[in-house]
Amino acid sequence: MYFAIDSDQGHTISGWLILDNPADVPQFVIRIPGKAPITFNANVIRPDLRDHGLHSTGLVGFQIDGQLIPDLTHVSELTLAEVESDLPIFRRNANARSVQKRLLLMEVGAIPQVKLMRRVIDMFDLAYPVVDRFPLETVSSIIGSFTSSLFVSGQPSWQRHGSLAREKGFVTAALLRDPFEELAERLIALVHMKKWSEKALGNSVFKRHATLLNIVDGLDLGSEKSLLGGFRKLSAEQYNLLRSPMTRAFGCSPEEEVQRRSVSIALDNLAQFDLVGTRERFGEFSILLDALLGAPIFEGAELQTLPGAPELALILANIGLVADLIDEDIALYSFAAEAVQSGLGERGVHA
Fold first, then answer.
1. Pairing verdict, β 2-8 and 13-18
2. What percent helix, strand, coil does the chain show, rounded to 5?
3. Going by C-beta distance under 8 Å and a sequence separation of 6 or more, which residues neighbour residue 167?
4. CB 276, CB 174: distance < 8 Å
5. For residues 186 and 188, what is the distance between their CA atoms, to the nearest angstrom?
């Protein structure tokens, strides 16, 4: 899906959206607090998009005006979304005291920080947590969004989207994690998904883990021997899915396999971020990020960890096969954590 908002002139809002099927005509819904939703189809032909081969007829544009909403000029709050996906593509929010910044927070993890995300989402007009659940084209449209108050989080490909994020004036922040702890939490998450697989895999956040579910069949997470046997049985696809996810996010193109040279690329890319931190020093990371945003968004926030993850991480750290699997992430985290330690010092940063 591609989309763009061309303008909001008060009395009109215009833009376009192209669905995955280039022959489909998009349908939109407008939500205004206290009023019934307004649904309408694309009502503007865009010859430019048709001529570029992006849509068969060009009927993908829209114009919202007084015919759809008679008092549009005086509507201070509305949200526009695509009907099928319910993806919000625009929001007018004149009443709220939202943060007028664009924030891209990259963090690699199997389970989103739901409590933290809920807190941050409320501070922005539009928010797209776990943005990597969307196709690459949709992520590009999100990062190129019209709004000036925007929060994007997850693990998009920096190689693909980093330059656009910087061009659009995002505050860019990366939060890194010990690779063994990340893998431990991923395994524990897989155990939970396996128990509730039918329900869990209906969630877009978990769909990408479907190929990994049989890894935990009969696996004893407290036994080094059982874990070693499980990792020895990984298929090539499973191995690649688990291999060094941090290095993949920061140093590889979407279809590129992780290689040792990807570590240096990832480090070079991390140097472009406004802020890089580690979970171990999240308190200081929060203070510095709030300073960049000019608002107390992360102040006092805490990260959640799945029970048993720290203990499992210690077991995984003793398995050579596991170290080989996340070798690039071990190197990346070591270099980055040392740089963070050097930058913050022993005493750290205080509010």
1. antiparallel
2. 40, 20, 40
3. none
4. yes
5. 6
The rounded distance, in Å, linking the Cα atoms of 277 and 266 is: 14
Integer CA distances (angstroms), 12 to 7, 52, 107, 248, in order: 8, 26, 37, 42
- Strand 102-107 and strand 150-154: pairing? parallel
Q: What do you get for the CA distance between the two ends of the chain, in Å?
A: 42
Helix (H, G, I), strand (E, B) or coil at 145: coil
Q: pLDDT: is 269 or 109 the higher one?
A: 269
pLDDT the model gives residue 131 = 93
pLDDT band per the 50, 70, 90 thresholds, residue 154: very high
| For residue 206, pLDDT beyond 80 | no
pLDDT digits (tens, 9 = 90+) for 230-239: 999 999 999 9
Q: Averaged over 258-273, what is the pLDDT?
A: 96
At 37, which amino acid appears?
P
Within 10 angstroms of residue 56's Cβ, the number of other Cβ atoms is 13
What H or E segment, with its residue span, contains residue 272? Answer: none
Q: Which domains does the chain have, with CATH numbers?
A: 1-95 (2.60.40), 98-351 (3.40.50.300)
Measured distance CA(70)–CA(34) in Å, rounded: 15
Q: Nearest Cα to 116, choosing from 299, 257, 339, 323? A: 299
- In 3D space, the residue among 152, 5, 153, 171 whose CA is nearest the CA of residue 78 turns out to be 5
Q: Is the pLDDT of residue 90 over 60?
A: yes
Q: Is 244 helix (H, G, I), strand (E, B) or coil?
A: coil
Q: What are the tokens at 244?
A: 């060094």
Nearest in space to 110 (alpha carbons), one of 167, 37, 188: 188
Check: CB of residue 266 under 8 Å from CB of residue 349: no
Contact 277, 175 (CB under 8 A): yes
Q: Tokens 């190689």 sit at which residue?
A: 159
Show the DSSP H helices in 13-156 as ranges. Answer: 47-51, 114-121, 136-143
Helix (H, G, I), strand (E, B) or coil at 25: coil
Phi, psi of 345 (to 5 degrees): 75, 175
